[in-house]
Amino acid sequence: MRNALLVASREYVDNARTKGFWIGILVLPIILVISVQVPRFLEKNATPTRNYILVDHSKNLESVVQKTMDDAYQLQVIEELATYASEHMMLPQGTNMPDLESVPAGGIAGMLQEFMNANPEVVEQFIAAGGLSTALNAMEGLLKEDAPEFEAPRRKFQQVSLPSGVASTLQGRELADALTPWLKGDRTLDGERAGEDLFALIEIPADVLGEGKVQYWAVNLADSDLRKKVERSLNQEVRRLEYEKRGMDSGAVREVERASIGLTSLDPRKEAGEEEVSLADEIRQYAPIGFVYFLWIAIMQVASMLLNNTIEEKSNRIIEVLLSSVTAWELMAGKLLGIAGIGLTLVTAWILSMLGILWYFGGQGTEITTQLLDVVLGHGLLPAFAVYFVLGYFLYASIFLAIGSICNTLKESQNFMGPIMMIMMVPLLTMMFIPKDPNGTLATFLSWVPIYTPFVMMNRAAADPPLRDLIGTTVLLIVTNIGMLWLCGRIFRTGILRTGQPPKFRELFRWLRSSA
User: Fold this and answer.
1) How far is the CA of 303 from the CAs of 17, 99, 299, 353, 436, in angstroms?
2) Long-range contacts for 159-163 (Cβ within 8 Å, ≥24 apart)?
3) Residue-wise over 114-144: b if at least 16 C-beta within 10 A, else e?
4) Structure confidence by residue, pLDDT tens digits, 13-64
5) CB atoms within 10 A of CB 424
6) Is 288 exposed, middle or buried (0-12, 13-18, 19+ CB in 10 A)?
7) What does the pLDDT look like over 409-456, one tens digit per residue?
8) Which pairing describes strands 50-56 and 157-160: parallel, antiparallel, or unpaired?
9) Are strands 215-218 and 50-56 parallel, antiparallel or unpaired?
10) What is the tens place of the pLDDT at every residue in 101-149?
11) Per residue in 282-316, pLDDT tens?
């Protein structure tokens, strides 16, 4: 055992000195920061204002569309103001940040959107009260000293006039052909939006209330937000006109359409009086998905490191020098333990960086960040991750080590790695489905397949799986690890000094049979 620990120490030190090890430690934190910041940046800055031309031959509906766009922008301003206030306003003395357990499912953004849907007049009231300038004046004195100035969001959609030289009398295909150079980006707009591109042309025919159809011309078919807003606003106006035509009060109809029945999600496992599903409950339900990704990446990176090291030492004849001092079993055990230490170091660094990033981006208030961290640190997710990482590592590392012992180059190992990678993709393919039915047939079946047990059981960790699954799969995984290490040892002992072409599967079975 002493020789195995010496080999493990050597493996750990040699790998810890490499640039790849330190790059591996930094890669995940960088990816996490990018995944948080880049979507925010792209949403705010990368998407340009969508300029559109609206030609209304009916002379009645252009103002309807314009009002819808203006209201949408004011709603955007209100949402930005709410976010700005939550981050930079001082709380009254004695007031704490809201506990995640008290925030309903969907979060603060969901609450705001639900309120806006139920009270569309809020936007009109906001405008009537003075809009953004009045709101900012009311917030003076309530902001933190280091609060930055509020930046009004850009308009997502902006109506522009026809370019000079394009007659407003054109209709249909003729109008579209005249504007094709602008729609394709060959020419840019003039006037106030000079130099910008034209995103879409919207033409409303004179007989739109009859059989005419609104024409929406655009090259970009992926971004359909503008089309949907125009379609929704026109349909609402057509319905209003139909109500008036039939002698119905359109205001009363809108009140009826806004009537709804509230639905509250309740969890029977929670104590009486606390049954309502909160934002913290949703985070607990879906947090294991992130840990499964984390687990898969960690096991693959560390096991691949073991494979590469073994093949490199075998091709450089270093293995022969090592085997002159230790047995094959001691060398194999040392390699597994040494790389396991590297893996635990990587995982520990990743978890600490993840918690640090969560603390930094989770909110500005101490209480809210504490609650977010409690969701991750509580509910047994981190202990479960540690257990399944260790067991999953030894399972896959033994397979990779056996492959490395019979191959002389990385190119040869790819023939064996292909099928293994296809097998390892199954947990990723089913990962989003399992939280929806964590104790269903598929989740239960995959839990009892040892090569999938670490990933599937990690995915089920927050759903309180049955005790028989929790204990039974863990025992089965431990037994499988012992058996796999025994098989790996047989292959490693025979193949580590072998040169030439790697053996075929039939020859591997003959090795195992002869060793047994």
Assistant:
1) 18, 41, 6, 22, 30
2) 159/51, 159/52, 159/53, 159/54, 159/65, 159/66, 159/69, 160/51, 160/52, 160/53, 160/189, 160/191, 160/192, 160/193, 160/198, 161/53, 161/191, 162/53, 162/55, 163/187, 163/189, 163/190
3) eeeeeeeeebeebeeeeebeebbeebeeebe
4) 888 888 878 887 888 778 777 876 776 677 666 678 899 999 998 888 899 9
5) 18
6) buried
7) 777 777 778 888 888 888 888 888 888 888 888 889 999 999 999 999
8) parallel
9) unpaired
10) 555 555 555 555 555 555 566 677 777 777 778 877 877 777 777 788 8
11) 667 777 787 888 888 888 888 888 888 888 888 77
- Could you say which DSSP state residue 190 is in? -
Cα 252 from Cα 438, distance rounded (Å): 46
Tell me which H or E stretch contains 333: helix 328-361
CB 287 within 8 A of CB 462: yes
> How many residues in total does the chain contain?
516
CA distance readout (Å), 296 to 299, 366, 425, 475: 5, 32, 9, 21
Six token digits for residue 347: 């995982």
- Residue 144, φ and ψ in degrees, nearest 5: -70, 160
Q: What would the 3-class secondary structure string for 339-390 be?
A: HHHHHHHHHHHHHHHHHHHHHHHCCCCHHHHHHHHHHHHCCCHHHHHHHHHH
Residues facing residue 89 across a β-bridge: 143
> Which amino acid, one-letter code, is at 324?
S
Q: How confident is the model at residue 503 (pLDDT cuts 50, 70, 90)?
A: low
The Cα–Cα gap between 510 and 500 comes to 18
The rounded distance, in Å, linking the Cα atoms of 295 and 504 is 31
Q: Which residue, 488, 492, 456, is CA-closest to 314? A: 492
Residue 462 DSSP symbol? G
Strand partners, 266: 276
Of the candidates 277, 274, 292, 442, the one whose C-alpha atom is nearest the C-alpha of residue 381 is 292
Tokens of 162: 């026809």
Residues 493/327, Cβ–Cβ less than 8 Å = no
Report residue 230 as tokens: 């125009």
End-to-end CA distance of the chain, in Å?
23
Burial label, 478 (beta-carbon count in 10 A; 0-12, 13-18, 19+): middle
> Distances in Å between the alpha carbon of 355 and those of 28, 352, 371, 376, 377?
12, 5, 12, 9, 9
